[in-house]
Amino acid sequence: MTERTAGHEEGETPREDESALLEVENLETHFPITEGWLRRETGRVRAVDGVSFELRPGEAFGLVGESGSGKTTTAHSILRLEAATGGKIRFDGERVTELTGADLRRFRRRVQLVVQDPNDAFNPRMTVGEAVAEPLALHGMDDGDRRRAIVADLLERVGLEAADADRFPHEFSGGQKQRISIARALVCNPDLIVADEPTSALDGRIKSDILALLDELRREFDIAVLCISHDIDVIRRFCDRVGVMYLGKLVEKGVTSEVLESPAHPYTRVLLGSVPSLDPSDREFVRPLTETVPDPADPPSGCRFHTRCPELIPPSDVALSRECWRTIARFRFAVEDGQLPESVAVETDESSVDESTVRVAFDLPSTIPDETVDRAVDDAIRSLSDGDLEAARARLAEAFPTVCERAEPNTGDERERSVRCHRYDSSVEAAPRSWMR
Ligand SMILES: Nc1ncnc2c1ncn2[C@@H]1O[C@H](COP(=O)(O)OP(=O)(O)OP(=O)(O)O)[C@@H](O)[C@H]1O
Questions:
Q1: Domain of life, per the record (predicted)?
Q2: Which of 29, 31, 51 to mutate to test the pocket of ligand 1 (most atoms within 8 A of CB)?
């Protein structure tokens, strides 16, 4: 066992939080896209692209976001199941990517994974007892009687019976198999459990029971949990703090109750589906501008959410109602994306679409109470009706520059609450925070 690295390594910036168990700093995991038999790299999927968070001992931190936002890749990079391409991961002060030999084995013992589908987690030819004891044997515990005693105790702790050790995994239900996975994760006395969608393969009551079990065990044994889920309810019930991921970035981070009760980032609001208000009749349903999630191999510039953001910041000289601006932004990004409604999609240069059809399709008013905007929208509609998507795209992009597209927002690196949105940056001229309620 090597001595734990105290403080920071030579030539490095001091660690943000000396008491953290896990520190993830600017993590990047990109996957190369290759072509041809020479496997020439033609691009990169930016699955995780600058993610930072910490986990304190015994704390439950949740990563939430739509499918494809990079949650699993983040977890796998921490576990060294995927190779991080940038950034730093420290576990108990040690750089995870640099661990080798005995140090790596110790790390693998102290950090355990619980996967989504317990059916994939077991070798069907091993008894439950053998499966749960396997990590003990791998980590050098030769005494069979001792292993059996530990397994019997753990099976009882997760709500099964000691005698279940002699049965095979296929004899158990999904919920019971997840209990066995949890027993196996606990057997080496870990400090951190990474739970990747631990309940999404389970139904209602069983899901609740498994969450309650995980919660009880983590408190009893003081185990930190990194919980990955697209299910807000799981995060709400289980996690002390939460990070919201969108296209490889953490867009908001904070104490779970605060983030879920007063979500600040427009994407978090979209994910939750509403802007909370004390008066339930005053709740506003928040929808993204478009449903199309951009490709992580070619993410939008600036803020990655800008192409779908209902709070997109307008150019400073545009004075329109919020709803009117949203309609125009929706129009702009649908055109940019080439996602045109059927009535507008023009196949060939010869065909054309009536201008009023374009207006109806995008809900655009016949006149817009801002002359410059009105002219730009008119020009774009004319180009679209002539089937010239490229000209419409260029006109709209030039007419509506936005800081959200131009620059990546900072988080300000506040530990307890951070929001990666220009609307929270005092140096950006935008509507005040209260505008977002
Ligand atoms: N090995 C890989 N090679 C190339 N691209 C990958 C690889 N693994 C993941 N990706 C891509 O990286 C992005 C993030 O995937 P990831 O599985 O981490 O997201 P997620 O938020 O966990 O989603 P889900 O809940 O669907 O698992 C996706 O676009 C995915 O297609």
A1: Archaea
A2: 31
139 in the same domain as 26: yes
Cα(353) to centroid(ligand 1), Å: 39
The verdict on the CB of residue 270 being under 6 Å from ligand 1 is no
* pLDDT at residue 9 in the model: 46
CA of 44 to the centre of ligand 1 (A): 12
What 3-state class would DSSP assign to 202?
Answer: coil
Higher pLDDT, 23 or 320: 23
Give the distance (Å) from ligand 1 centre to CA of residue 68: 5
Who contacts 21 (Cβ-Cβ below 8 Å, separation ≥6)? 54, 55, 56, 57, 59, 91, 92, 191, 192, 224
Q: Is the CB of 330 under 6 A from ligand 1?
A: no
**Which residue segment(s) compose the domain that 371 sits in?**
314-401
Would the ipTM clear 0.95, i.e. be above it?
A: yes
Beta carbon of 73 within 6 Å of any ligand 1 atom: yes
From the DSSP assignment, how many helices (H) and strands (E) are in the chain?
14, 13
- Examine the fold and report which residue of 255, 285, 303 is the final residue of a domain before the chain moves on: 255
Domain finish residue from 206, 235, 255 = 255
Range with the poorest average pLDDT among 98-112, 273-287, 371-385: 273-287
Q: Is 72 in the pocket of ligand 1 (CB under 6 A)?
A: yes
Q: How far apart are CA 38 and CA 308, in angstroms?
A: 37
Does residue 48's CB lie within 6 angstroms of at least one atom of ligand 1?
Answer: no
Residue 164 is encoded by which pair of tokens?
Answer: 């279940």
Global confidence as pTM = 0.88
Torsion of CA 271, 274, 278, 279, to 10 degrees: -160
